[in-house]
Structures are given as C-alpha cells and as structure tokens.
Automatic annotation (TrEMBL):
Domain Peptidase S11 D-alanyl-D-alanine carboxypeptidase A N-terminal positions: 33-249
SUPFAM superfamilies with a match to the protein in the record: beta-lactamase/transpeptidase-like
Disordered: annotated span: 446-494
Coiled coil, from the record: none
Key words, A-Z: Cell shape, Cell wall biogenesis/degradation, Hydrolase, Peptidoglycan synthesis, Signal
Entry-linked PANTHER family: D-ALANYL-D-ALANINE CARBOXYPEPTIDASE (PTHR21581), TRAFFICKING PROTEIN PARTICLE COMPLEX SUBUNIT 12 (PTHR21581:SF6)
Name of this protein: Peptidase S11 D-alanyl-D-alanine carboxypeptidase A N-terminal domain-containing protein
Organism in which the protein naturally occurs: Methylobacterium crusticola
Record field: compositional bias (Basic residues): 453-464
Highest taxon listed in the record's lineage: Bacteria
Low complexity biased stretches: 475-486
Signal peptide: none
Amino acid sequence: MLTRALLPRLLGRFLGLGALLAAGTAGAVTAPMLVVDVDSGKVLYSQGATDPWYPASITKLMTTYVALDMVRQGRASMDQLLAISADAAAEPPSKMGFKPGTQITLDNALKIIMVKSANDVAWAIGENLGGSVEGFANLMNEAAQRLGMRDSHWFNPNGLPDARQWTSARDMAVLARALIRDFPENRDLFSISAIQFGRAVMPNHNGLLGRYAGVDGMKTGFICAGGFNVVASANRNGRRIITVVMGQPSARERDLKAADLFDYGFGQSVGWGGQTLADLPVSAAAVPPDMRPYICDRRRPMPTDADSAAATASAAAAGANADNANAQLMAAAAPPSSALAFATMNSAALRNRALPPRAPLQPVLVWTGRDPAESAIAATDEAVAAKPAKAPRVKAARTKPAPSRTIAATGATVPQPRLLARQKAAAPAAAAAYASAAPATAVIADHKDRAGAKHAAKPGAKHAPKAEARPAPKPKAVAAKSVAAKAARKSKDD
C-alpha cells in the first residue's frame, strides 16, 4: 500500500512535464522548459521559463562566453597556456584529473569543458583569466547584465553546487543566442561529438548530438538539487531553434523531452506579434527549489549525466522494469479518470520511446602543453617516473651512449632521464668493483671503444703498445717457491 511519504516521490518521478510537489510546501514546482526562435527571439513555447533554477554544468556556457569575449577584446588568446592549480586539481568529478602544474591552452580547455564538462579545467579557466575564481565570477555577472540575463547569479565557473548560484531557462536562452550571434567563428565548439586525449576517447554528454537531426550544440548539466538540464540548438532548413529543458529526473527523459520540443518548435511559424524573451514575466519564486529528494534517492544508484545510448541492455531492462512497477503502483493509487492516471499514461508512452542510435563519433584531439609533441614528452616522462627504480648493475658504468627517445612529430631527440640517473647511481659501485678485480697492469686510455681495447689486450697483437704486451710480475709467494726449488736441485747435484 502506498504511504503518504511515497506518493509525492512517485508523483515527482513521473510528472516531468507537469507539477512536482515541493518538499514541505503545499505549492507546486514546474520543471522549466522553453523553445525560442534564434533569429527573431520569439518564444514558441514557455513553461516556468523565468523561475530560478540551479544550472549545474550549463554554467560552463557562461564561462565560455566570458573567455571568448576576453579573446575578442585582446585580453586573452586561444593559444595562451593555463596552469592547473592545486585548488583546480582538487575539484570533484567530472574532471580530467590533471596534476597541479599541468599547462593547457585555452582552446583545448574550452573544448574539454564543452565535451567532458571537466570541473577542474573550468576552475583553471576562471583562476587564470579572472586572477581568481571570485574575480572571474564578477566577470560572469558583468557579462550577464550586459546581455540582459536578469535572473542569474554566478559564483563559480563550473556549476558545482552553490546555494547562491542560479539562473533561469529564459536567461540560458538569452545566453545561447548571444553565443551564436557574437562568436560565429567558434560555433563548432558546441557541436564536438567527442574529444581524444592520448588513447582515451570521451564522448559528449549531450545525448541529442548525432541522434536528433539538425542538433548542433550546446551543453548539458546535472546536480541533484537541479536535476538534469540541457541547452540545445538545432538547425532545420536554415531555421535555428534553441530549446531549454531543466529539472528532469534522468538524462534519457531530458533528451526525449527536448526532442519533442524541437518537433513542436519546428512545426510553429514565427509570424508577426507573439512574445519575445524580453516579454516573459518575472517569476514569483524567490529562490530555486531543491530537487534532491526527487532526483537523488539514496535507495537508488546515483544518476549520471551520460549519454543514455551508452547504457548496457541489462541496465536498460532493469530501469524499464522499475518504471513498470512504479507505473502500476501509480495506476492503482488513483482512479483511471484522474489527472494522475493521465500523467502515468504519458510516462509509459515516454518509457517505450527511444532516440535513434548515435552517429559514429568524430573525436577532436586535445593535449596538455603548447603542442601535441610537448604533451607526448610530458606523458612519457610521467610514465617513466612512475615506474619503480631497479637496483643498479655494474654494466651500467661502462661507457655507452645514453638511449634516447625521438618524437616523430618534431624529430627532436630527448635523453631518457630514468636511464641517465641509473647510470650515475651505479658508477661509484662499479668503479670500486672494477678496481679490485683489475690486474696490476697499465690501462690503455688511448683507445676510444671497447673493440679496440679488447684487441690491444691480446698477446702479440700488431698494434698493441709495448707497455701492454708485458705481463704483470708474479706474486712474491710464487717467486719464493722457485728459489727453494733451485736450491734443492743444486744440493742434489752436489
């Protein structure tokens, strides 16, 4: 039997397009959705568009706007190096896991935060371009005011939870239009299907890319307090539309609802009149709702902002079985004619739908350092340093050219630091061992290689120096024995 505590949870799970009951309140929370024509700014569909909401990683669209604006003003450049600080490296996932001191170009950093949504890299962008995260947040707020984003408050560049940081669907649509309008030369930044760092290929979290015809950006985001969000753009027959969906319980539902809104938007004509983004009324809500009780139930695995197409068949089947069970409970709890039952039927229809398989990924290469060759050297040196050192061997003291590594991209040759260090460490012990075992003869220093030295050591060698041909004097014990033998023979002859 359903309890009063379980019913609001199930209701919040299934009414993504409707009202979600807020914990501890009698009111209702509407999941924000918005569809806008890019060229005209006309609103084609709106639901809770000005309500305050936690943005999660769609914050990185604001971070990208500020960075590109600084490049446009000449205050930054796409090839400048950003350093990963200890604070940046300590940011929680999603992240690249770069060590403090690692450097990366701004161009690669923007690609990484748009695809991988790496929090450590976004933090580094803020620190390096703003002087500090606080300084960069001020730049974010200044840019938001210039663009007319009236509902947004920014405190960090990566969107990790901060109770003071929120935005609205309307503001994110304003920002998306500004990115498309102000930086047309950087439009490809938002449509990268995957990045490749070394051997690792990381697909874009945006499950609409390569699965919904015409989608060419922009960014997803997820935290428990805000649910699953997406700002997406699509182009069909020369017409571009922006869709914003926020507060969804899963990445799959977010993607499907965004696809439905695109279908709806492309079916509408702009015409004359109609509401614009500037015409949308101010929300009556003072602060964003906390969606954690509905999104991140401790009794279920933590949801992730990942492409639903990457889920295994068994996981998908398990999710479908859970949805079926919950739907049956919901249907049994309410009369068939009620609005609740109607919402349950909509949820069942949504559960049986799926977007087409994702198109093959086309990874874009990213690297640390200024160029890929520098990144290859750093990665190899790091791998070499991570290997445990072996005990030194006597042979290491012999004169031998240090092995080298050649980078194909530049032709540069770089000694291997681990082998050089091993030779230096082994030299004293090897010299002592050699001195104790060497015969008491002069050592030839004129020969330049071991082959010549070996040839010079042979008796009767044509080119052997005279000093080397003479054997070392016999030990005194042997000489004494010879004297005693001669004395014995003399006494016998006598």
